Amino acid sequence: MGIRIENLAVAYAGMRVIDGLSLDVEPGSFFTLLGPSGCGKTTLLRAIAGFIPAETGRVFFGGTDVTRLPAHLRDIGMVFQDYALFPDKTVFDNVAYGLRARKRPEDEIRKRVDAALERVGLEKFHARHPAALSGGQRQRVALVRALVIKPKVLLMDEPLSNLDAKMRVQVRETIITMQREVGITTVFVTHDQEEALAMSDRIGVMRSGKLEQVGTPADIYRNPATGYVADFVGGANLIDVEVDAISTGRVTARLAGNAVAAWAPASMNKGRAVLIARPEDIALAPANGMGVAARVVGRQFLGANTSYRLALADGRSLGVDLHGDRHDAYALNADVSLRFDPAKTLVLAS
Amino acid sequence: MTRSGHGGAIWLWLSAAALAVLSVVVVWPILTVLSGSFGSGGATGWAKVAADPKYATAIINTVILGAVVAATSTAIGVPLAYFTARFDFRGKALVSVLPLVTLVVPEVISAQTWIMLIGNNGFITRQLQAIGIQLPSFYGWPGLITVMTLTYYTYVYIGTLAAIRGFDHQLEEAARSLGTSPFESRLRVMLPVVLPAVLASGVLVFTLVAGNFATATILGSRVPLLSVLTYQAAVAEGGSDPIMQSTLATISIGLVMIMLFLQRWIVARGRFEIVQGRGAPPGRLGGLAGALTGLAAATIVALSLMPLASIVIGAFTAARGPVMRWGDWTLAHMERLFLIAPDPIINSLLYSASATVIGIVFSTLASYLIVKKRNLLTPVLDYLTALPLALSGTIIGIGLVLTFNTGFFAITGTASIIVLAYIVRRLPFGIRNASSTLYNVPNSIEEASISLGVPPLRSFVNVVLPLMVPAIAAAAVLTWTTTVAELSASIIVYSGGRETMPIQIYRLIDSNLMALASAHGLVLVTAILVPIIVATRVFRIDLFASRS
Question: Which among A53, B76, B198, B417 could disulfide-bond with B153, CB atoms 3.0 to 4.6 Å apart, if both were Cys?
Answer without folding.
Answer: B76
